[in-house]
Amino acid sequence: MADLLPTLLSFPPEKEVSNKEYDKQATKYVETLNRISESAWTKPVNKQNILDLLNPATNSIPYLYALYAQWRNASKDRTRNEDAMTRAFIFFTSFDPVQVRYAGDTWLRLLDQAIDITPKLVVTNFTPITTAMLRLDPTAGTFTSLHLRLVRMCLAEGAPSQALPILDKNIYAFPQAPHKNLPDELLCEDHELSNSFITTKTGFSITPLKSEWILEYYLLGADIYIGLRNYSRARLFLEYLLLTPTSQHSCSALQTEAYKKWTLLGLLAQGKSFPLPRTHNQQMMKSMKAIGKSYDALAESFEKRQWRKFQAEMEAGFQIWQEDGNLRLVREVADALMRYRVLDLQKTYAALTVGRVASHLSLSADETFAMLTAMREQGYLHASITASSSNSTSDTAVLHFHPTTDAADENTLQNQTTRIESLISYLRDADRRLQLTKEYIEVQKRGKRGGAGPDGDLAEQMDLTWDDAPIPGMGDGDGDEDIMAG
Prior knowledge:
The structure is a single chain. The protein is mainly alpha-helical. It has 21 helices and 5 strands. The chain has helices at 5-8, 19-34, 60-73, 78-92, 97-100, 104-120, 127-136, 145-156, 164-167, 211-227, 231-243, 253-270, 282-291, 293-303, 307-316, 318-324, 327-344, 354-361, 365-377, 407-434, 438-450, and strands at 209-210, 351-353, 383-386, 398-401, 474-475. The chain has a 3-stranded antiparallel sheet. The relative contact order is 0.08.
């Protein structure tokens, strides 16, 4: 290995070169490293570990090769695994993301190794792994198999919030083969979007991706957001599942599960069922509703604020909620029903005694007073409770409702504006790639021959039956408090 050290240190070039020259040297350099046997990376150089002679920030490619080989060779040796993990965590925060683009296969193997070994070493800090993923792709917008593996690991280890740095990023692309009609893009160029260098050929993901992997990612992500009370983000993830087209308009088990959670989430988040997405497939939705009819029965009782009927429905379907893994969520919805019964009083009253609230809820005054106090502390109720006299009881205390502020609405609007701005570049790239597809070009040709309607509108001739179309990049085809457990 000592004879190879000069070769390992020969890249990156000392002087600044053009992108074309850099790409040429990097490609040849990686071809040279691929010819080195895995065992050679584990041998000492002048009685030193080769990793001690390489700088992870400067010599990122050979450091990646050596680190993966040594970690793989560590087997079950705890000391060697801990040393490799320490080195990996340093590498994840310092590697050159441009160099690593040329070693996608080894990169994927190293991250998979880290995800496999980290929990076995009783380490529950997965920040270095998410840091590595974001260092390579700051947008985390091109879906890879690592996205799903990370979410599974965080849930399995009871640390769902540690997946948020990746989940909070919007997916805008899947690894695809470079398009024949696109000009050649060098890996070392400054790419606006990561799907230019995360492709089926660069090795950063298992390909082809299976559609169920992507559905599972969104379903698990929704579980995490529900558990962490981020209902708007959970709703978005579930909507992705409900709107995913399938062959022959059939619905998958993952989509059916999404519908059940969608039903419960609407009750929890806004006191009534979410309206179905406007572009939903009616045949698919009919199938999902047939399977989730017990959830719809719960929703009907909830929306009518029929507490006793809701309790009866909940007890009757106990086994269903338990088998579906939604028992704790159903119980959360039951608690929410009581809260919404209180909030509904604000539509009629500006103030009323706790005793009158208790009569509406069929609870004792003391139970009602305790519940109202808890709702205020948890931010569910904007109100104050004042005693009618110095020696008054809970029954005579007065609940004063306060008008809600527009701060929440303003914050929501700002978040939506920011999200739309971030999507502009994604839409521009998708539009550019669409215009280079064979189908689009054929439509253009037909439009020129046939006039495309009286106004030359090509949309009149385009095939909009997208329900059966595969999702780009997909094939045919496991700490924090989480209310989804149980």
